[in-house]
Amino acid sequence: MMPNEKRQLETKIREELVRARALRGETTKFLESLHRIANILYSSPVAVVGSIIGGALGILFGFWLSATVSIFPLLVAVPCATIIFAGFGLLVGKGPQAIRLEMRIQEAKKLQEFLDVELRKAKSEKDQKRIEAIGSEKAKNIELLGLLHSQKARSGVGKTTGAKKIEGPKT
Amino acid sequence: MHEEVFEELSALEVIEQRLRSELGKQYVFFLFASVFGVFAVFTWLMPVGGFLVLKVAIEDQIGSHWSVLLLGLLSISSIAYSATKIYNMFRIITMRGQCSSSRTMLSELLRGVDYDAE
Question: Which pTM value belongs to this model?
Answer without folding.
Answer: 0.60
